[in-house]
Batch of 2 targets.
Target 1
Amino acid sequence: MTDGTGATDSPKTVAPKAGGGFLLRLFRRLTRKNSLVGRLIRLASVWFIFSLVITGIALTAYFHQAALQRFQLNVKQIADNLYADTDIDHSGKVVTPPFFDTRTTRVYSGLYWQVSEIDAKGAINDAARSRSLWNEHIPIPATTLADAKARIGEGVFYDSIGPEDEPLRVAAVYSKIDGRAFVFLAAEDRAPMDKDVRRFALITAAALIVLALGSLVAIFIQVRVGLRPLFDLTDEIAHIQGGTQQRLLKSYPAEITPVATQLNAFLDYSQEVVERQRMHVGNLAHALKTPLAVLMASAGNQEGELPEIMRKQAETMRAQVDHHLRRARAAARSQALGERTPVEPVLDELAVMLEQVFQDKGVIIDWRAPDDLAFRGERQDLQEIAGNLLENASIWCRKKVRITADFNPADQSMSLAIEDDGPGLDEARFDEVLKRGARLDESVPGSGLGLSIVDELVRAYGGTLTFGKSQIGGLKVSAKLPANLDGAAV
Amino acid sequence: MRILLAEDDPDLSRQLKASLSDAGYVVDHAPDGEEAHFLGDTEPYDCIILDLGLPKIDGVSVLERWRREGKTTPVLILTARGAWSDKVSGFDAGADDYLTKPFHTEELLARLRALVRRAAGHAQPMLVCGGVRLDPRAARASVNGEPLRLTSLEYRLLHYLMMHQNRVISRTELVEHLYDQDFDRDSNTIEVFMGRLRKKIGNERIETVRGLGYRLKPLHDEVSDL
């Protein structure tokens, strides 16, 4: 694939930074406001992440609820058993049923029960407690007591702190036996259950995060692959701008086909318009110039004031026609896209031709250009630029003319330097010549050096024309023009 | 001196014919491509002035036909389209000089004098090496009948090689014979020109003899032809 191009600000010229910057670039690309990929991915991920978070919360909450219920069922059962089997003997002493669960007999085991009596004044006295409680006491908050009283025999749950500062879940059943009020409590260390719930939440979160990341990658790939035709289209357009191809060549999916077709039609049309304009301009030139030649030829044979005026005016008209037709052509050309011209053959044929034209003088034209150098523009224009400069040099030189084309990879341009061994030009006049070129409207058409034509063309390609002293003695004119290095490959 | 003027514009033709006659030329006039081709083919002109925008057959085609038929009469082309692409295609077809319309009559006369003088140079024998032919008088060369377009340095190189064909010629010898004293004698340039010449006449025709130089020789199947 060819490299991006210099003069236009194509997306390819943004040089990628070193490998480490990949994530940064990806991030930048995704957050870029006008990126289609970014939009799709942002949209998809917002919804996706939102639903994942909701799912995570719901799952954890459900698990928590279910675990707590199961846990409470257990303590409630103990409290119920306690309530059902507790009796008061004839001496008024509270008799509790035997529990076989060893946890209730091991000290601070985490499973406790307690029977508390509430006397007429509302004070709470423990009538009995499990051995596991030892001397400790499970407190009953007043609000819970009130709740329990409201639902006699049904029981309520609350959280409390155990003898070893462990968190407890307590089931409390309020009831009266033989007219005395009791609260039957069963409590169990809830830390293992909380741990389970936390672990479940963690695992769920981890799984969901993995799922989210995987899905983001999948979405990214999907969007990239799905939009690949669009990227292809962008690439092709960049190539067309860079001048390495003329039309869209790939086939596109149905959704983009109309765009591609239209674009191709437009490219064809623009090419056709350029072509037509040039033909038109050429015809006009042909139509005007022969009559002018007649005028000049008839005036040339005669002496007198009238023929002199005719000669002068015809000459001016010729120059004006040349000047304006060339400008129109240059303007038409600069809009044409994608042309490329290998430099070597153009220089060769011009050198051969001009040496023949200046055969009597014995002009030697030495040209140098890399084989694969290509001018990013039309052949005719390169011929025009090099031809005019070479002709000038051939006129002014003693014997030697040198034309050298060098590629400059930094800005994808070439410098076309034409030198001769003639008298050269005073440095003071460099500016003068350039200035004349710079103010095109005031430029004298068909000036002695014919440089204004070249200058207009070079400018139409966004290049520059500079003057200097040649190493072989005379003038050196350098034109900077857009170029590629793969001319031979195409 | 007999001249063919092929130009379709009657006014311009009349003017030019008058000027040319004044300058001492005998002028025939052809108003279209067909007649121009016929006259150029049958009459022995010293020079032909050919407008490229002729009716019936355009100038470039007429010129191409003449050259294909072996006519070597010098041809000066007149073109209204001053574009270099037109001039180049005119030269590819075999023109010797060009003039862009409109032009001064004096300019035309000067160019004509130069062309006629050039063509009248004394005859030198044709150099032949296999399918390569070089005509030193016209400074033209061809490969298998196809005309070669050579720059003067390439031509000089080929000329020297043709004069010493089948002999190994060292790079130093070539440098000495190709350039004037003051030309930069960079021996790299010989390789550059050798490369271009090979491209134009065929790679196998010039042999590189390692350490010694170059040798021009006919192709194997061409030797038997001679």
Note: Chain A has three domains: 87-190, 241-338, 340-490.
Target 2
Amino acid sequence: MTDTVSTQSDDTRADAPARNQWWDVWDQFKTHKGAMFGAGFFIFVILGVYLGPYLWTIDPTYIDIRARNSGPTMAHPFGTDQLGRDMLARMMAGGQTSISVGLTAMALALLLGTLVGVLAGYFKRIDGLLMRTTDLFLALPLLPLLLVMVMLFRQPLSASFGPETGIFILIVTAIGVTSWMPTARIVRGDVLALKEREFVLAARSIGTRPGKMILRHILPNVMSPIMVSATLGIATAIITESALSFLGLGFPPDFPTWGRLLFDATDFMQQHPERVMWPGLAISLTVLSVNYMGDGLRDALDPRIRGL
Amino acid sequence: MLDAPKSDRKLVAVENLKMHFPIHTGLFRRHTGDVKAVDGVSFDIYEGETLGLVGESGCGKSTCGRAVLRLYDITDGSINIDGDEIGSTPQGQLRGKRPTMQMVFQDPQASLNPRMTVQAIIQEPLDEHTNLSKEEKRAKVLDLMDQVGLNRKFAGRYPHAFSGGQRQRIGIARALALNPKFIVCDEPIAALDVSIQAQVVNLLEDLQQEFGLTYLFISHDLSMVRHIATRVAVMYLGKIVELATREALYDAPLHPYTKALLSAVPEPDPDLHDTMDRTILTGDVPSPANPPKGCNFCTRCPAVMDICKQEDPEYREVLPGQFVACHHYNGITDAAEIIAASEAQ
């Protein structure tokens, strides 16, 4: 202690609270060009679909039958569909639904998957039960299951939450509960390996309780696979929602989503290829930007890559 | 340490400690046997002393150390630490006892969470067992970093940015955070290079003098144990074969295994090195899942007798303070006879 008193003057900075770690994460994230580009594009898309309707005020359901099937013009930059509804407005309205479905369903799947994976990996007693449940869900045929769910719950949910919110809840739950299994398996595998590491043993020798152990030692170390699952999950959720809309099981026909727009446009692909391109591009680019973002975030969250 | 004040109070008393890991085989995962990693070990550690625990790889040293801290649920035996029997206490009730006993781990790379800063790592025991405010905890962590010789500026860094020796210091600071009485050092220097080993061992000695700590020092480095330990226990295949004070064990070992182990220590003098009479053991350590009948060491012992292959030798105090498990000393109690029996091997 005595020698530190003498060097106190040049060590004063060390005694000040350390710099917030999230600044270091941000510094590292900034160095990943793809991630910055992805994040920029994703923010652009989100702003576009949520704030765009205030600038481009045409109602996406307004039918102007005389302007139907028009190509890109000044009045309709993305063209119109077969009923003369403005494609740009429909893209923005559809984007709102698709992105919120994607994010919410991904969050739900991630929560379920991480919960099941961590519990199964950490507590040996419930491992068998949880993993057999996971296998059961993996073995379920997805589309018939979704079909039954939609059949059974569409009416009661629509009645209690209104048609749009009801369907939204239904779709998000349906996608969420059918896509958590890969995350659970990956997380369980990582937790099993982590549990045997010495720092977990060290924490046990301190007397850390299981709950704290998971939050402090296990979860931060399984962030990488969870981040990867998350970014892939958004993509899968958007695509599954498109598939459901495509089969007529998703949102009502007059309610635009990117998947529904794509489905509607396939009939006119020969005459008006641009109508397939807009929703297709929107889905692919959003998914791509989210993937890049996840990549950068995973690197930024790892102190070893961050180089501190 | 010769000059360390040796108290007569037993801080740790381990009696007949057994740690068996079950083997399950076949389609129905039937219990078909046990790996007897620790098989009936008894020793006492007096307050303020360092008990060295030596033995070759896989003999159960680390398992023994971890079992003493109840990081495992032990198969049998009693462990008494600082007046409390913890041998059969459920894990949930051990929490209150944890601050008294801490551990320093072998691999300083693996024993620190790569996602936590040094500050968070050293602070973890404080988070778990104290109600200090954030500032008090930070002050305590910086204090601990001073004590183990780490620069305070490093508090915000992550473990991967440190060298092995520095990481081991972080591990030691974490073990010290709750002012423990008893620390199990599980090969704390095995992963470090020689110059750093000396630093870490000296640090451990300084801390022992400053805080009156009691160590169980597990190592396979005989010369380092000779430097730090007050008494030394030699383990072979899950059992202690000899336990004696440092001087007695290094000067006049009684058990044939201890003799073989000591004769394997490198000799720096080239002339002596060429001429010295080494006891070289042949063969491998038998599997702890299937130990030999009789004495565990009978398959490799240079002085094996018929009785060794039939009966397990009793672990008993042959000379005052010197415990040996060997049939060569059966029925003799006189010191001169014992030395004669030892030389006769």
Note: Chain B touches chain A at residues 66, 69, 71, 94-95, 98-99, 101-103, 105-107, 110-117, 119, 124-125, 128-129, 138, 142-143, 146-147, 151-153, 155-158, 160-161, 171, 174, 178 (CB under 8 Å).
